[in-house]
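Narrative of activities, Objective 1.

The group set out to show that a structural description can be obtained from nothing but a protein's sequence at a throughput compatible with the screening campaign. Below is one input-output pair from the validation batch, recorded exactly as produced.
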Amino acid sequence: MTDLFNECTGSKPTSISQVDLSKVPTVVIDANGEVITGYIHGDNYYELYVNGKLVGVDAVPYTPFNSSVVKFKAKRPIKYAVKLVDWEENLGIGSEANGGNAYYPGDGGFIAKFSDGTSTSSAWKAQTFYIAPLADINCVTETGTSRISSSCSNSPSSGAKSYALHWEIPSTWFSSDYDFSKWPSATTFTEAQVGVKPAYSNFTSSFSGSQFIWSSNLVLDNLVLLRFTGN
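Output recorded for this entry:
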């Protein structure tokens, strides 16, 4: 995975025309596969797996916001798996210092587009494994496989009054044969809801047709796993 936009390394192109894609290394997953190029932007941290293999890790786990370009060689159908994590300074209770609030809940957002025709949308599956900060854990409900936090307040008054819910992550969730069919569908969000930065807005043409996605709660759902099988 190579920087598309990363202020920490001084990589700040204003358009895709300023990026030398020929220098992006190709990760070989299947020797008899085809080369796929992908553009990725996430808030805050992500890991990308393809056909059960780790392909790339976000270079900046928090801010400033960055984006990446990746190339890999794989056989179709391409089986995508992405781990998404929203940043937290108060470990285990899902909050950070922001705007004078020591227990600010933060938010997430993820968008990607790949040259095999895959774009992020509600066709992806998104399962939540960590919800915080919560003033009351009983506000979260489970319906089928959906873990719903839409009725929760996201403003605990202190760390002592902040709670969290964690679910065990399946050890093989990223594998090619893992059955994610019963996971909830991803929820799409607008650019305004996510609050886009130059790491995305400088390259909107590269992300054309893709949507920002997450689980159903962009603010409280702090660890989300995505799955999708391409063409």
